[in-house]
Amino acid sequence: MNKVTIIGSINSDTTLRMKYLPKPGETLHTTELFTSGGGKGANQAIAARRNGAQTAFIGAVGKDDTGKRMITLLEKETIDISGIEVIDNQSTGSAYILLDSFGENSIIIHSGANNHITNAQVKAYQDLIEASDFIIAQFESTLDSTIQAFKLAKQNGVKTILNPAPAFEQIPPELLAHTDLIIPNESEVEILTGIKISSEQSMKEAADYLHNLGIESVVITLGNKGAFYDVKGKSGIIPALKVKAVDTTAAGDTFIGAMVSVLQKDFSNLEEAIKYGTRAAALTVQRFGAQPSIPYGSELL
Ligand code: ADP
Known about the structure:
Layout: E1 3-7, E2 11-17, E3 32-38, H1 40-50, E4 54-62, H2 65-76, E5 80-87, E6 93-99, E7 105-110, H3 119-124, H4 126-130, E8 134-137, H5 143-155, E9 159-162, H6 173-177, E10 181-182, H7 186-193, H8 200-212, E11 217-221, E12 227-231, E13 234-238, H9 251-262, H10 270-284
Helix pairs in contact: 1-9, 9-10
Bound molecules: adenosine-5'-diphosphate (ADP).
Adenosine-5'-diphosphate is lined by residues 165, 185, 221-224, 226-227, 240-241, 243, 245, 248, 251-252, 255, 278, 281-282, 285.
């Protein structure tokens, strides 16, 4: 059983369903409103845990009822929540997801407590990282704490996986130098590399750009087209499954968590692991919400 630590965000998601996304200045009525657990970090932790990995979380919530609810959700999944801190005078992270009738979304995030994960906190829960096979981070929490966590991981032979989402252009070289595997989606990889993804050749160019920054392994998720990988001189595309998507929220998070739950530490089964993540994500996009849509390993059989 893989041991995975996630450092990252915990959000309360409010999803507003509507016929189409509003234009600037337009007022629209929703067709439905629902709330669920979310945040890329928490979603990835749940995907890893539901697919069999022993999973621990380093993160933060505010001192409010929402925070209590979000911690309870993770606890119910039997995720180790000992690394989650409750921050005074901060609200729990929240996301407002506008979802249209085609399954497209626009998302607004209030980071709240996610912006208060400190280096001292990472140091305090160092034992969780040291005991792991993999650590996964995203960009919805503090950059400094992610760098610190990846440094500790590398010192202890733990593999580091970066999901650079949401992406920005100037990622500190120090973080990239401590990243073993990077998993951006198409638009994120374009922001990171400046290379427009239009063909497999352009994916290869983007992967080479990232290899040159010191990252050995690259996987680019391509939405309903699947995922491209470029690892140790081998590259290719694993196609997505043909399904009717109703809500793609947490597709990438499911892909990553499920994939890492079956990944060998030397990445020798990466293609198999990507196929597994692809099947898990295909279930997620056929269901509404973030955490409620993430499948259990037993559903993939
Ligand atoms: P993100 O959610 O981070 O933007 P993607 O949209 O690239 O990431 O989706 C991640 C993975 O989810 C894809 O590699 C694919 O396996 C699966 N996926 C996404 N959208 C669909 C879809 N419409 N049909 C089937 N699989 C999908």
